[in-house]
Amino acid sequence: MRGATTASVRDKLRAQLADLKMPGALEALDEILARVDGGTLHAAAALDALLGAQITLRNNRRLQAAMRSSRLPAAKTLTDFDFTFQPSLKREQIESLHTLGFVERKENVILLGPPGVGKTHLALSLAVAAAQSGRRVYYGTLADLITSLEEAQLSGRLTHRLKTLMFPALLVVDEVGYLPISRTGAMMFFQLIARRYERASTVLTSNKSFEEWGEIFGDEVMAAALIDRLVHHSHIVNIRGNSYRMRHHADLAQLIQPAPDRSPPRHRRPARQEA
Ligand code: ADP
Ligand code: MG
Questions:
Q1: Fewest CB within 10 A of the end CB: N or C in the chain?
Q2: Which protein residues touch ligand 1 with a CB less than 6 Å away?
Q3: Are 201 and 170 in contact (CB under 8 A)?
Q4: ∠209-214-215 over CA atoms, to 5°?
Q5: CA atoms of 228 and 174, how far apart (whole Å)
Q6: Residue 79 to residue 81: CA distance in whole angstroms
Q7: Ligand 1 atom index nearest CA of 122
Q8: Which helix (DSSP H) or strand (DSSP E) does residue 170 occupy?
Q9: Helix (H), strand (E) at residue 66
């Protein structure tokens, strides 16, 4: 065959990839060379595939390490996100956020909307993208973070804990608004956000509108100061849609409704939008 890779060239490539510690590329090598020899892959595409295989392996390793150290509860990605289910979202905006310019610029992302619309999913997929790019990330619900700050304060290590929470280039604060928080908890969270302001990015999710934050934090003035810092350089994503968790119930309702003998007519209601 014309130009077929000789065994000695193949061995040398293997040895070089092993020497450079590129196991992803090493594993992909034989298949790439077979396609080159078969004439279906040209030189530039072959190099692209070889380097791409190594980058994929490296990014997966970074993500696995982050899953251990960053407390990410799941590796959600944008690929798993069904935009057709959530038409209120601007796909270009979400995709553009995933290129992580906001992390470089130390801006925040605030995801607002009712339960089940994908706020945590998108916060996690941003954290996954950041972890794959080699950035340090950390995940916590507001309640988790406040508990950890309270524990640190009790053991006289609050300043140290606040410093530790400054390291991540991206901090996810999930579920602002589900649980009431104590006044001291609110004050410590304010300190955290004030420290990270213009220094590192925070991605925050809430089922409550900003007007309701005074109630969550038990102090209108502090909530206003908090919102001021969070929102100053931020991307606010409002999701107004149906709960993805409830989608099967909608399907079920449609399946059940047409069956005439299942329920007496007086029980039939017009199809309702889920809250
Ligand atoms: P929220 O944080 O807004 O309450 P979640 O992000 O936890 O909602 O979403 C609930 C579940 O539904 C999760 O398992 C999430 O991955 C999934 N989900 C939500 N929206 C979508 C979507 N548009 N496409 C695919 N999965 C989704
Ligand atoms: Mg959530």
A1: N
A2: 76, 80-82, 85-86, 113, 115-121, 205, 244-245
A3: yes
A4: 90
A5: 18
A6: 5
A7: 6
A8: strand 170-176
A9: helix 43-69
- Structure tokens, 28: 């992909």
- Centre of ligand 1 from the C-alpha of residue 75, in Å: 12
Provide CB contacts within 8 A for 192, sequence distance 6+: 145, 149, 162, 165
Entry field: residues in the chain: 275
CA of 118 to the centre of ligand 1 (A): 4
| Helix runs in 85-204, H state only | 91-97, 101-104, 119-132, 142-154, 158-164, 183-196
pLDDT in tens, 158-189: 999 999 999 999 999 999 999 889 999 999 99
CA of 70 to the centre of ligand 1 (A): 20
DSSP assigned state of 175: E
- The closest of 137, 131, 147 to 63, measured between CA atoms, is 131
